[in-house]
């Protein structure tokens, strides 16, 4: 492990975990060598300090007309004024967005991916033949994979199953290897992305975890880059900046840099419901345990997060963030991701206190590419109740109940059964999906044939493993009282929906509605309304 000293622009001791030869961890104690990502910071930075930074800093410089590689294209993103959304809500101030989605890899995380790689090379910790390993929600992985492709390193990314398939495909296109971990696994769980990354690093020679949760290069990239650019672009007239919080490196780097140049600027932090990063602690109290917005929020406080630079925290949820992200796309022409909607929602609330002529800057972290099959899709939004389903073609059956449709006879699996049992059940019953229940009868997910096939092909599971290791969770549930119209919108894209019934405090499965069953129903209805001449009535 290598470390650097603390400095003005960084909240922590920068750490890299490197392996020279394979090491093994006893099976009975998979967490024996776990390096926590939430260790207290030892940084000495404070506003107004005269301490000299011991770190390597990169001053802003204009980009040349030609670039030696794609890595030099990172940064220097434009600041764009919003012209419709703030005005429609009566805001008096100027609202600008920092278009981080225009970085070459598509997100603000390109900055830290490139910075961490170059810093590791400068210190001699990354050399030809090394492997970069990183736990990430995807965007940092893409930035690192882009840097690895340009510099010639092998790259291995560990990310939760919740993250979009577009991120996985982008990573693979860049040459990275991808390992998925359970979304619900806690940060300090043996099955979580951080522990899995560390076990891989101990087993792969000449491998390095750059560790965005503790690496000095994370906030440094934003102290030297993003924050300095904002100050320069507005000539030092920054009255408010709104930043989403994930690892906290963006918040820390931008917040510190702007506080030094614009001491009266309000630094506003946006945190999703279900995350525990906000202060005071009361803000984090919620029943939300899962949220769709990606790349923000955590269940621990990363070392690089300096909450002292934040003037006020705001919470947001999927229901406000995702429609507002779509509005940024539709009304302002900004092809950004879901967390941009969360940041803008917070900005529109916080900026109500600003006056005419004052400037509010909102960070738009990533682009639309990662979410084409998620919030960009009308079907996906309707399936999750973020958008109303409309009977555009006046289908007479639209409002009939789902429970009136023919469904497959319910066959379920226990989560403590063997995968081999699930395979046999699927073969003998000719099913491609089996709802999975725990010992209490609560729904845990689905064994879905395409997902199980992928896990078997990539040796992520074995037939002798328990079913709980092969559970597919990216599926849609609907209540048996829902209308067929909404189910039809979901089944235009998905191969099945799980129909459920609420019994007391427990959700129970009723059956599985498939595309085939809906097709047969719709085809029959269409023939009913067709007259003898073959034309619809």
What is the CATH class designation of the largest domain? Alpha Beta
Strand order of the largest sheet: 1-2-8-5-6-7
Helix content: 25-40%
Unreliable stretches covering 5 or more consecutive residues: 1-14, 22-27
Could you tell me the mean pLDDT? 91
Largest sheet: 6 strands, mixed
Count of individual helical segments: 14
Strand content: 15-25%
What best-fitting shape do the alpha-carbon axes yield? globular
Number of strands: 18
CATH topology of the largest domain: Rossmann fold
- CATH architecture designation of the largest domain: 3-Layer(aba) Sandwich
Structural class, please? alpha/beta
Core attributes:
single chain; 537 residues; alpha/beta; Rossmann fold; CBS-domain; 3 domains; 6-stranded mixed β-sheet; 14 helices; disordered N terminus; iron
